[in-house]
Amino acid sequence: ESTPDLVVVGSGFFGLTIAERCATELGLRVLVLERRHHLGGNAYSEADPETGIEMHVYGAHLFHTSNEKVWDYVNRFTSFTNYQHRVFGQYDGQVYSLPMNLGLINQFFGRSHTPDEARALIAEQASEIETSEATNLEEKAISLIGRPLYEAFIKGYTAKQWQTDPTKLSADIITRLPVRYNFDNRWFNDKYEGLPVDGYTAWLTRMADHPNIEVRLETDFFAPGHEYSADTIKGTVPIVYTGPVDEYFGNSEGRLSWRTVDLEAEVKHVDDFQGCAVMNYNDQDVPWTRIHEFKHFHPERTYISGKTVIVHEYSRFAEDDDEPYYPVNTAEDREKLLKYRELAKKEPMVLFGGRLGTYKYLDMHMAIGSALSMFENKLKPHFAEGAALH
Ligand code: FDA
């Protein structure tokens, strides 16, 4: 057994894109280390044992992109359904079609408005506060969409997401709150959208399916004493690291803060529980933020009748042992991150990437796009032309 040309830490979309490109285009032998018992990172999915319904284990994943390069690339490994994401939201005993649009405005205010009438109404309500004078998230939101829409559709949901009263949250968290003055209720406005026909795990597995790629599961880069542990291989082989950047440096500058979500799955003995894939809950006294019903992501599939799986989602700050999901990104976090970036630049033979390695929320297409750029701009020049890695 010979040593690999490249070690990739983490088998999410970022790590697998790097591994696939280096193996296929440069013929490198790539070893991927993954500490979980499965590959794929947070996009991993599996069939619920009782119903066979594909469950996105780390939260619902909808693929969308306007990036042609990324779209061409991902289509090498999977085809996509024509699924279009739409989200509904409960508030005070009614269901509204999100995002905020003319339909929601008409329903909420109890009468029909032309686009111009709705625009004038919201502008008048928003004039209560000047945007430049907003000192917290609540004031900022009211200055953008007015108090009635804020109180119904932003306040409770935001308070639950952040476990913090919106008057105590920074105004910077939101820059815009888009309202559509038409009936368009598609969630994404990217050029391409769909779900992988045979699921995320099949797609991710195909990316790693190359004779030059080995994926070692249940292998933590930082666990001491194995053949490819950090202590042993740092400085001896090029590494692409997609784990948490603070963890790499032993949290020397302090831990970066994250939000996590708790997902509670349950089988319901009905064909259809809520009539859509995602229902948001805007009322503050309902503890969950959303309910997902996964069978609606693939209406083209055949399911056993009389059963469905739903997942309640709860949002909270991550503790040390929780899965990090969304960067909190406070001023202190940003300061720490700058220090980690300096350290990362100086780390010989290691490139940092992906959402954990850069402390950035990245959609899948962004993680893939950024890995393709790292391959073109850093790895290919290094391996094909002998350029320095950094
Ligand atoms: P990812 O986290 O997927 O992979 C990193 C891997 O590294 C993990 O498998 C981890 O176990 C491993 N690892 C870390 N440290 C290690 C170590 N020391 N040793 C070995 N392995 C280690 N995107 C989108 O486009 N549409 C969507 O709808 C959603 N929805 C969504 C919901 C939720 C709740 C979240 C949290 C995220 C999304 N996303 C999304 C974003 C999507 O999950 C994200 O783009 C990809 O996970 C990014 O892939 P990465 O490879 O960067 O990280």
Automatic annotation (TrEMBL):
The lineage of its organism: Bacteria, Bacillati, Actinomycetota, Actinomycetes, Propionibacteriales. Its cofactor is FAD. Residues 152-361 form the UDP-galactopyranose mutase C-terminal domain. SUPFAM superfamilies: FAD-linked reductases, C-terminal domain (SSF54373), Nucleotide-binding domain (SSF51971). This is UDP-galactopyranose mutase. PANTHER family: UDP-GALACTOPYRANOSE MUTASE (PTHR21197:SF0). Gene3D superfamilies: NAD(P)-binding Rossmann-like Domain. Pfam families: GLF, NAD_binding_8. Belongs to the UDP-galactopyranose/dTDP-fucopyranose mutase family.
